[in-house]
C-alpha cells in the first residue's frame, strides 16, 4: 500500500513503442502465443476506420488468463472462454507435470507456469511439456533466464519495493510485467489502481494484473482505464464455468483504447521520499 511518507514526483517521458514482429528478432522463431496476443491488442488500438486488424477480435481489449485451481478441471478447458491458462504451483516439478496434462488437453490455448523458483533445467522441462510462458520474480530467477528465446518471460513486479528498478526493466529482454493486486477477501483499492496506472505509463511492455478475488464489471472497467492489458484470475471450483463466461463477456464489452501504449506521451507519476512539488521540465 501507499506509504504516508511518499509524495508525487512528475516528469514527462516519451516511451518506446513495443516490437510488433511475430518472431523473435534475428532468430526466425515464433514468439510466445501469449506475448503475441498482448502485442496484437496494443497494435490494434486506435486504428483508423477501414483498416483491418490482424489476428485479434476487434472487441478484445484485455486478455483473460485463468490460474487453474485443480488439474481435474482440464476436461472442459478447451471450450473455456480464456486466452491463456496458468499453472500456479510452488513446486516446479509438480507444476511442469500438471502443465503437461493441461497443454495436451486444451489445443491452441497457451499454457504457462508460475513456480516459486525456476532453474535452467526447469525451463527446458517446461518447454518440453508444451509451456508457452513463465512468470517469475527477479529475486528467485536465474540470470540465464534472460537468454531464453522461446518462452514468454513475465516478470512479477513488487511495488513500491521495485520502483527504482523500472528503468532497468525496460532495457531487459523481458516481454511482459505483472503486478499482484487484490488478495483474497479484499476489494480493489484506489492504491491498486494508482500503482497500475503508474506502472502502465512507465514501462514499455504489456501489463498483467493477478488477483485472487473475482472482479466485478466495474473493477474490470477501472483496470482497463488504468492501462492494464490482461487479468490473471484465480476462481474457486464452484460455478467456475459460469464465472469465467461472465468475466469474458465483461472484457469483450470494453471499448477500444484511443492510443497505442508506445505512442502516447504521458505525465508519469513517480513515488519519491520528501518531494512535495512536481518537477518542472
Q: Could you list the spans in which at least 5 consecutive residues all have pLDDT below 50? A: 1-28, 48-55, 262-281
Strand order of the largest sheet: 2-3-4-5-6-7-8-9
The helix/strand class is: alpha/beta
Q: How many DSSP E strands?
A: 10
The outline comes out as globular
Helical residue percent band: 25-40%
Topology:
Elements: E1 6-14, H1 33-44, E2 63-67, E3 84-88, H2 92-103, E4 111-114, H3 120-128, E5 133-137, E6 152-157, H4 166-171, E7 176-181, H5 190-202, E8 207-211, H6 217-225, E9 230-234, H7 240-252, E10 265-273
Parallel strand pairs: 2-3, 2-9, 3-4, 4-5, 5-6, 6-7, 7-8, 8-9
Antiparallel strand pairs: 1-10
Descriptive report:
This protein has 281 residues and is an alpha/beta fold. It is 26% helix and 21% strand. The chain has seven helices and ten strands. The protein has helices at residues 33-44, 92-103, 120-128, 166-171, 190-202, 217-225, 240-252; strands at residues 6-14, 63-67, 84-88, 111-114, 133-137, 152-157, 176-181, 207-211, 230-234, 265-273. Helix 2 links the parallel strand 3 (84-88) and strand 4. Helix 2 runs parallel beside helix 3 (120-128). The chain is globular and about 40 Å long.
